[in-house]
């Protein structure tokens, strides 16, 4: 017994110089590599062939000239290459398609865009469901996935991909430290300290749907201004979709392009993605 006590005492004595490292706060602890974090994220979120989400899309008063408006939106995923969303308002139908790198937006029977806006990228963390595809997509959007740190947001500890916390001058994706599920995506950082220009998506109320996880609430912010909220109502995992739903070439052959209106007096004509999206929703609801 004395011999075992001596051995234990020797081990504890050797560990004393390392005590400060063992009790260091989270921001100084060992941080998993960004690529490994994406592996853990993809493993946690699960896999499926397809997903349909019926959700309440609320466009906030700060975006529209009237009060906040809510519509029922249908979102369809065919992993990992195709996505479609559609909803109808009193003014007409709004359809967005993304398939194999090509995009299309149709508003009230006219093609208004063949590119994605910044807000459209909220879907990417679900659609691109392998580490390699997601790394490439994040890189395209300015997130350096090989950079990682630990931070805190609204009282929760998270892994930060793409930045060294608390730096918010670059795009970054935040993963909950306990679940590895996304909680925040800073798509566009504030420029020159102007917080009103920052664009971010927040994911909350995650729910297990058969073999995959999906958030029941997704919110979009510009600075501290809430632009829109998505609240899940119903879901279907692995539904069968027609190929035509995601066929960009087909829908281009069906709908004409909208004539671009001339810039209003005093307007530069060089609107950013967010302003174009706001104008698009105004057309549907005004």
> Could you spell the SSE succession in H and E letters?
HHHEEEEEEHHEEEEEEEHH
Low-confidence stretches: 4-28, 262-270
- CATH architecture designation: Clam
Percent in helix: 10-25%
What's the gyration radius in Å?
23 Å
Going by CATH, the homologous superfamily would be Lipoprotein localisation LolA/LolB/LppX
Number of strands: 13
- What fold name goes in the CATH topology slot? outer membrane lipoprotein receptor (LolB), chain A
What are its keywords?
286 residues; alpha+beta; outer membrane lipoprotein receptor (LolB), chain A; 13-stranded antiparallel beta sheet; 7 helices; 37% strand
Description:
It is a single chain. The chain is of the alpha+beta class and about 290 residues long. The chain has helices spanning about 1-15, 20, 35-45, 125, 130-140, 250-255, 275-285, and strands spanning about 50-60, 70-80, 80-90, 90-100, 100-105, 110-115, 150-155, 155-160, 170-175, 180-190, 200-210, 210-220, 225-235.
Short description:
It contains seven helices and 13 strands. The protein is an alpha+beta fold. About 12% of the residues have low confidence.
Question: How are the SSEs ordered, and which strands pair?
Answer:
Layout: H1 2-15, H2 19-22, H3 34-45, E1 50-59, E2 69-78, E3 82-89, E4 92-99, E5 102-107, E6 110-113, H4 124-127, H5 131-140, E7 148-153, E8 156-161, E9 172-176, E10 182-188, E11 199-209, E12 212-222, E13 225-237, H6 248-254, H7 273-285
Antiparallel strand pairs: 1-2, 1-13, 2-3, 3-4, 4-5, 5-6, 7-8, 8-9, 9-10, 10-11, 11-12, 12-13
């Amino acid at each position: 017994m004395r011999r075992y006590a001596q051995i234990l005492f020797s081990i504890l004595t050797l560990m004393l110089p390392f005590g400060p490292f063992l009790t260091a706060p989270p921001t100084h602890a060992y941080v998993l590599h960004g690529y490994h974090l994406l592996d853990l994220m993809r493993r946690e979120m699960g896999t499926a062939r397809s997903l349909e989400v019926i959700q309440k899309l609320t466009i906030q008063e700060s975006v529209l000239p009237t009060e906040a408006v809510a519509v029922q939106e249908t979102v369809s995923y065919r992993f990992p290459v195709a996505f479609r969303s559609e909803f109808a308002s009193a003014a007409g139908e709004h359809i967005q398609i993304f398939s194999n790198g090509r995009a299309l937006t149709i508003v009230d029977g006219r093609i208004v865009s063949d590119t994605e806006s910044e807000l459209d990228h909220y879907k990417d963390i679900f659609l691109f469901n392998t580490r390699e595809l997601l790394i490439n997509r994040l890189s395209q959007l300015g997130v350096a996935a090989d950079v990682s740190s630990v931070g805190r947001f609204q009282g929760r500890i998270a892994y930060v991909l793409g930045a060294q916390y608390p730096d918010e001058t670059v795009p970054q994706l935040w993963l909950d430290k306990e679940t590895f599920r996304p909680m925040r995506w800073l798509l566009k950082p504030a420029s020159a300290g102007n917080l009103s220009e920052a664009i971010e998506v927040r994911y909350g109320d995650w729910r297990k749907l058969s073999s995959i996880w999906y958030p029941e609430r997704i919110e979009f912010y510009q600075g501290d201004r809430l632009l829109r909220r998505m609240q899940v109502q119903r879901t279907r995992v692995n539904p069968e979709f027609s190929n035509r739903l995601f066929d960009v070439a087909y829908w281009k052959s069906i709908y004409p392009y909208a004539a671009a209106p001339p810039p209003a007096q005093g307007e530069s004509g060089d609107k950013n993605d967010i302003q174009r999206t706001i104008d698009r929703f105004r057309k549907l609801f005004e």
